[in-house]
């Protein structure tokens, strides 16, 4: 018999959120993290302030900037600058601080944190789940949460998420100093990046640059892009350390649960396939997984199917449209930029998408309606 209720693999945004909510509900939770300390994660840190509603503690210590203006360009020209509507605020968080903040709250709520602890094996015995780390240490629990990000092998092995996983290819650079990027302004560049876009988000005394390629064979011309983008932002083209990362993006509706097991965040392939938004679904899935596991552990439900169902409604249905939009937009980006981004309502729509106020399905329906009206 094990005395642990839940083992969570990975103390990132998704894992720490699950740990906090489960510990707060009174369960015995152990969070397993391979890294011993704070590392700079390849993440722009853009996140809707609306996620604050999912936590009973203040997230603002992790926030570096509030974005008020968005600045779009096509090949560094044909600029569109727009104020974001104040009703859907958008934060830039210092990513490593966000993970640390939620992890600390989980520990304060009673979760156990083991780090460094790199899980190398995960299996089910008759009743319990068992993980093993690289030193051969074994721990068991009634349930498992897979939260170890885009390179997690466990969802495929245990039949969760898409069999055919799709990855966006990304390069990121954290720069010191703000260059000529204005305070409270987020920059988006379409046109320079093959099958994707580049972004520059201001953080305290620095800038997070990211480049993502979302469809096709995932080749990324990041050095060419940086050679043009960095000088346009007032930086040396060689400035900053490059980090490349493969980001597992949403690729169809699939079960995210099994017998006493769920996948959350990037491990569950939840990241937005159009805009690379992965923090909100990581936090959302962490909250929902904790809610369903709480019912299951208390014997109020016999399985974890509700987790898959609710994530489909709250996230998957919109991502199905996001994927379709990405396929068209990144194949014909110049047309997409002219017809989509340059519309006067585009910044407001993007803000509404990123805050969860609107889904990609709503956007698609508006476009279809417009086309039908034009056809008549
Ligand atoms: C360049 C780039 C820019 C991005 N910008 C944004 C953005 O601006 N806004 C946004 O919303 N999203 C952004 N994203 C996406 C976002 O970063 C991810 O979706 C988010 O990190 C997902 O969180 P997670 O907790 O699922 O995974 P992760 O943050 O990857 O956490 C997984 C954790 O598991 C640990 N781990 C891994 N393997 C093991 C193991 N075997 N044993 C134990 N622990 C393990 C890792 O060390 C890590 O701490 C960006 C992604 C990239 C690559």
CA-based shape: globular
Major sheet: 7 strands, mixed
Helical content stands at: 25-40%
Task: Please tell me the total number of domains.
Answer: 3
What name goes with the CATH superfamily of the largest domain? FAD/NAD(P)-binding domain
The termini sit apart by 69 Å
Query: What is the N-to-C order of secondary-structure elements (H for helix, E for strand)?
Result: EHEEEEEEHEEEEEHEEEEHEEEHHHHH
The rounded Rg comes to 21 Å
Tell me, what is the CATH class of the largest domain? Answer: Alpha Beta
Structural write-up:
With 376 residues, the chain is an alpha/beta fold. The chain is 32% helix and 27% strand. The strands form four sheets. Strands 6-5-14-15-16-13-17 form a seven-stranded mixed beta sheet. The chain has a six-stranded mixed beta sheet with strand order 8-2-1-12-19-18. Strands 3-7-4 form a three-stranded antiparallel beta sheet. A hairpin with a 2-residue loop joins strand 15 and strand 16. Helix 1 packs parallel to helix 5 (279-297). The radius of gyration is 21 Å and the shape is globular. The chain starts with 5 loop residues before the first strand and ends with a helix. Bound molecules: flavin-adenine dinucleotide. Flavin-adenine dinucleotide is lined by residues 9-15, 32-35, 41-47, 118-119, 147-149, 170, 172, 210, 245, 247, 265-267, 271, 276-280, 282.
